[in-house]
Specification:
By secondary structure, this protein is an alpha/beta fold. The protein is built from 17 helices and 26 strands. The strands form six sheets. It has an eight-stranded mixed beta sheet, sandwiched between helices. The chain has a six-stranded mixed beta sheet with strand order 5-9-10-8-7-6, with helices on one face. Strands 13-12-14-15-16-17 form a six-stranded mixed beta sheet, covered by helices on one side. A hairpin with a 5-residue loop joins strand 6 and strand 7. The longest helix is centred in the N-terminal third of the chain and has 28 residues. It is globular and about 65 Å long.
Length: about 625
């Protein structure tokens, strides 16, 4: 049923524009991302029916998300208790469409169609007031109605109902805001209307400044510890608020001018305004706080932070691609800080120059392709001698497009891969047999890898980290070493140069196969590799039963909790743990100390991702 539009409905209940907008945008993004991946073939028939079913399935996913939000806030229970008749309400909010607005009537019509699963049969929507502020659409509650919006946001579902601020077709239109505990309405209102001055006392785990206003924590983007700032509220939550810096009143002595012109918009970096030495010092504090708070352990020695060059270091990245119809342009880059849009950048200061200096050229290349709408992302993989771009494409590229990609690759000395499907579909376009490698000269080792293989992002830090880990582990010529989560053999092969025997265990069979090939490539015979799911119980596996004097762990963000249920065995005298998440390291450190009888001898941070809040660290345990 189409929505009935009434202008100037002053007798209706008061609604928040932001609530309506958020849900419509939420549904549009959820379904468009799925539905636009398929197109109805021109020949129709059975294939067209299947594709149309895919679109319907996409809408079903959005409806499921909506239903889940309603369920969490007690909507269906209220239906059972109150009956349908009492739930029918009209939306009465004055609005008009700003220059960046969209056709609200059409979107509301889509909403009526899609929320039919919760029994909606009638919607009344008046004209809403919409204000365009800066980039994109920003919505402002109608003057004089802020108290209602605030009551709805602060009190949530129950208070809104008690105050009879019922705004929608059986509560469906504000389901997302209800699920977010009223953040959208009140937080948005504060972001437009409320500024404040405050002192920043710390940095959060994601690089935002931490302040306390009226006893409540506020995370302030763009602020540094020790500063006094003027900030504007950007979001309200039950236990904390969010804000953004408007003016730095008293800057930190560690504040520096960001090198990148896109800093603050692009979400690739969070800390370019903080001097690099201060960045790694902050990460060191995060590590030590996590060890004490989560693991209830403290290292006997705090290792000096390990750092390398903070610019042009990234050899692996995933770049988003978006053809913006209204602009007639292709954007290539990381996501914006809010995650919703692709940042409009011309170059990247943290990517290795072979790609970082060519972002604008890559965007222009894609813009020239017939299939520019079908390329959502590019994987970047850079070896010591070659840089590769993997173009993900949703539909086959024509010969003209393929030729343009080859010409670009030749002109810029790049390798081009195409990925029409999953990981296994990646294939080289040019050259015919590209070879990506990186060398570890201190160990006379060279490792070959595929463009989508996991390798450490920072090449310089990787070499320093391997040296650091081996110095801490201190393998002797008679030692047997167990390297868990070994990947391509990044630690395994250097260890094999120093120890009697090394066993590398990894869950991804492709990496295990290439690790074995890398051992052969380097003439290393005392390293063996095993494919095993380390999240499962492997205690009966031969490698797990074998005795090893030394253990090296390099797990993913989730840590090594499962494997530490049965390892290390009593023969292990030392464990070195390389971590990409301080929380999981702290948890596992508690296990090694309290259950396996180890002592946390030393720990320290490593700056694998300069200018981001990511904390890489290393710890050594002795028994």
């Amino acid at each position: 049923m189409q929505p009935r539009v009434e202008r100037g409905g002053v007798d209706g209940r008061v609604a928040s524009i932001q609530v309506v907008s958020e849900l419509l945008e939420f549904l549009r993004e959820q379904t468009t991302q799925r539905a636009q991946r398929v197109r109805i073939p021109a020949d129709g028939g059975e294939s067209a029916r299947v594709v149309e079913q895919c679109r319907l399935d996409a809408w079903q996913v959005a409806r499921h998300d909506l239903t889940d939000a309603l369920q969490r806030r007690g909507f269906f229970q209220h239906v059972r208790e109150s009956g349908r008749a009492q739930l029918r309400r009209d939306v009465a909010v004055d609005f008009r469409t700003g220059r960046n607005g969209r056709c609200v009537d059409s979107l509301c019509a889509q909403m009526v169609q899609q929320i039919d699963s919760v029994g909606v049969r009638q919607v009344t929507v008046d004209q809403h007031e919409v204000e365009s502020i800066g980039r994109g659409k920003r919505l402002r509650a109608v003057a004089g109605k802020h108290d209602h919006a605030s009551a709805f946001a602060d009190g949530g579902f129950e208070k809104a109902q008690r105050d009879r601020i019922v705004v929608d077709n059986e509560y469906a239109l504000h389901a997302v805001s209800i699920a977010r505990a009223g953040v959208a309405v009140n937080g948005w209102y504060h972001s437009q209307m409320t500024t404040f001055e405050t002192d920043i006392t710390d940095l959060s785990h994601d690089g935002r400044g931490v302040a306390h206003v009226n006893g409540k924590a506020v995370f302030v983007s763009g602020a540094l510890a020790g500063e006094r700032v003027r900030a504007r509220f950007a979001g309200k939550h039950r236990h904390y608020d969010e804000a953004a810096v408007e003016e730095v009143l008293q800057p930190s002595p560690d504040r520096v001018a960001p090198r990148c012109a896109h800093f603050g918009v692009c979400g690739g970096c969070a800390l370019q305004h903080l001097e690099p030495a201060a960045q790694i010092a902050a990460k060191q504090r995060v590590l030590l706080e996590n060890l004490e708070r989560i693991g209830k352990v403290q290292p006997q020695t705090v290792l000096p932070p390990l750092a390398d060059s903070p610019w042009g270091y990234r050899r692996k990245a995933r770049l988003s691609v978006k053809f913006v119809e209204k602009k007639g342009r292709v954007l290539v880059g990381f996501r914006e800080a809010n995650g919703r849009y692709v940042a409009d950048i011309a170059r990247c200061e943290v990517l290795m120059p072979a790609v970082g200096e060519r972002i604008a050229d890559i965007a222009a290349l894609i813009e020239s392709l017939d299939g520019k709408r079908d390329i959502p992302q590019i994987e970047v993989a850079i070896g010591d001698d070659m840089a590769a771009l993997v173009f993900r494409h949703l539909h086959p590229l024509g010969e003209r497009d393929r030729a343009a990609l080859v010409d670009f690759a030749k002109a810029h000395a790049l390798a081009i891969f195409l990925q029409p499907g999953g990981i296994d579909s990646v294939a080289p376009l040019w050259p015919e047999r590209p070879q990506l490698t990186f060398r570890l000269p201190a160990y006379s080792v060279e490792l070959e890898f595929k463009p989508l293989d996991f390798v450490q992002v920072n090449a310089g830090m990787n070499r320093a980290m391997i040296d650091h880990a081996l110095a801490l582990l201190d393998p002797q010529p008679t030692d047997r070493v167990l390297d868990l989560f070994c990947g391509l053999g990044n630690f395994t092969l250097p260890l094999a140069r120093r120890a009697a025997q090394v066993t590398g265990v990894e869950g991804e069979a492709g990496l295990v196969r290439r690790a074995g090939e890398n051992a052969q490539r380097n003439g290393i015979a005392n390293a063996q590799f095993v494919a095993a799911d380390l999240a499962a119980d492997q205690r009966d596996a031969p490698w797990a039963k074998a005795d090893h004097e030394l253990v090296l762990l390099d797990p993913p963000r989730s840590g090594a909790e499962a494997v530490l249920e049965y390892l290390p065995r009593k023969s292990a005298r030392r464990v070195v743990y390389v971590s990409c998440h301080p929380g999981s390291l702290a948890r596992d450190a508690g296990t090694l100390v309290n259950r396996h009888g180890f002592t946390l001898r030393a720990a320290g941070a490593m700056d694998m991702f300069p200018h981001t809040a990511h904390v890489e660290s290393i710890a050594v345990f002795d028994r």
